[in-house]
Sequence to fold (309 residues):
Amino acid sequence: MNKIIGVLILILLGFGAVGQQKTISITIDDIPNTSKFQIDGNRAELLDRLDSMNIPFAIFINENKVYQKGSLEHNKDLLARWIAHEKSTVGNHSFSHFRYSEVGFERFIEDVQKGLELTDSISSHYGKSINFFRFPFNDLGKDSVQQVQIRKYLKDQAFEIAPFTVESSDWMFDTVYKYYLEKGEYEKAEELGDQYVAKTMELLLFFERLGNEIYDRSISQIYLCHDNSINADFLPKLVQELGKEGYEIVGFEETLKDPVYNQEDNYYQKWGISWFYRWMKTQKERVEWMKQEPELTELQKLYDQVVGN
Fold:
């Protein structure tokens, strides 16, 4: 009898552990990075890293990148590789990466449609559909009028807006990282890469705490990053750190099954803030939490110095 009770306790504890599993999905904007692709001799380093890790990921495509650098044929093949990958979920990120609040509704929706021309045909070829749209700069509009207008349009086009909960300004880290590499300051580059991983984890744990305090549970997180050099070199280390903290990497669509993503968006400004903040009902609550968010002050100083050189 005691053995049976012991087994039942272990089973129940096992179910509890499964129930508390922390999950996160990796989403990558500004696909494909054709500038880096050309520099690297037509090697898709970030895609190769993802393939070696065998993890799911979502991509958000700016088609204009296909026409910017290098061979058009090679760039189209690169885009097709990203889309065809068995672990990728495909999303639209517009053609030109315009800021919606600046260009307005008519010009913006033209760019959304233009961003589908090549992607849609490739996705159809591989039996994939494009169900998600992520706003450039996560700018959903300057006010409620713009936001209501674009939401209706996207819904009519069968697009779901792609949210995120965590981002760590990897684009700023990447700018400084590439600067160090170009200068041959490899130790500094390595240190910065480690700082990128550490800061990303610090931010993730902050939002994990926020989620637990507001919702009394761990919600499924969405990390937003970009197709760039620092991720090509350090995303594997970040994934390793996620594993140490007990996170399982799951597909984007799986993450969106968390009912937290069914909440109303209460934020009507243009700034690309975490969806945690968008769900908050008052600006006062947002500000209180934002003041607690880990800072990126030192990174900003480095970035400003590099850009100013």
